[in-house]
Design goal:
By secondary structure, the chain is mostly helical. The protein has two domains: 2-33 and 161-293, no CATH class; 36-154, no CATH class. It has helices spanning 2-32, 35-48, 56-62, 65-70, 86-98, 106-111, 116-129, 133-173, 178-187, 189-204, 220-242, 256-274, 277-293; strands at 72-74, 77-79. It has a two-stranded antiparallel ribbon with strand order 1-2. The longest helix has 41 residues, at 133-173. The protein is elongated. The chain starts with a helix and ends in a 5-residue tail after the last helix.
């Protein structure tokens, strides 16, 4: 039983490192294509312009000085902010609607809004707040937070699909076949012990897994440096013991059965990687603790 646990720990550690690599690549793609900023802008358009007939309010919102200040530039191009607090949204929306005039003009200004759904939502908030400025602003912030919760779900589902593709790409590039890795760990005690040592050192050296928060947008160069560090350090540490890569493949001996089995192993790796590094780290830490509390074989 303990032997099987050790093999599982070793396999989970490998999947954790591959997941970390995929997550770092995801950060790189998200930064390069401003995926979080685009997701935020999509959510704002859904809130401020339910139809595409008139997006003037959205453009005015984006033209606000505070919004521009929260945006970021990379090279000569300016990208939408990857995160906008509820208070910043409420402040920008009020300025966009009131156009510098006092709150006493809110009813008149709401009547001038081009989007019927937005107008109805804000009218409802105004009625419920009984013309109280602070209560009204609080309802606007709550509305924004509710929409952002859904937007986070959109982004997670979208990136999950990308992570599956990245996992498959990583599996092919490093020839990281989960089935073959399991077989290698089970049949080679020396390799298993080496990977176990790396896994324990990794868990004992971290209180928690450092993953970029969903609302941040790391710089492209920083993400690229992190990716290079992952490959050069952690992936290289397991590459040789596990025989990852294509160096030792004898192509003349490869059969159709081998190809099909390899595709299955890569697919398992891709799906495992898509679960995310935090999932594998938490599981690894629990299993390492279970192993540490038991008697280790001599």
């Amino acid at each position: 039983m303990l032997g099987m646990l050790q093999v599982v720990i070793g396999l989970i550690f490998v999947l954790l490192l591959l997941s970390l690599l995929a997550t770092t690549m995801m950060e790189l793609v998200a930064s390069a294509f401003s995926l979080r900023g685009r997701n935020l802008e999509k959510a704002l358009r859904n809130m401020l312009a339910s139809t595409e007939v008139d997006n003037q309010l959205v453009e005015t919102f984006k033209g606000n000085a505070l919004y521009k200040q929260l945006s970021y530039k990379y090279g000569k191009k300016r990208y939408s902010p990857s995160y906008l607090s509820d208070r910043s949204f409420q402040s920008i929306l009020m300025d966009t609607i009131l156009k510098g005039e006092g709150f006493e003009k809110i009813e008149e200004k709401l009547e001038q809004l081009p989007d019927a759904d937005l107008k109805d939502v804000l009218r409802q908030f105004l009625r419920e707040s009984e013309q109280d400025t602070e209560v009204f602003k609080g309802k606007v912030r709550t509305w924004y937070n509710d929409v952002m919760d859904r937007a986070s779900g959109w982004y997670k589902r979208y990136t999950q699909k990308i992570l599956v593709g990245m996992g498959f790409l990583i599996a092919i590039v490093f020839n990281a076949d989960t089935l073959a890795i399991y077989e290698r760990l089970e049949s080679d005690p020396a390799t298993l012990q080496q990977v176990l040592t790396l896994a324990e050192d990794y868990v004992n050296g971290k209180d928690g897994l450092e993953i970029a928060p969903a609302q941040t947008s790391p710089e492209f160069d920083a993400s690229l440096a992190k990716l290079e560090g992952m490959v050069n350090d952690q992936i290289e540490a397991i590459k040789s013991p596990l025989g990852l890569g294509w160096k030792n493949v004898v192509w003349s001996e490869v059969t159709v059965y081998d190809v099909l089995l390899k595709l299955l192993g890569w697919s398992v790796t891709a799906l495992a990687v898509s679960l995310g590094a935090p999932f594998w780290f938490d599981l690894l830490r629990k299993l390492v603790n279970i192993r540490s509390s038991g008697s280790k074989p001599e």
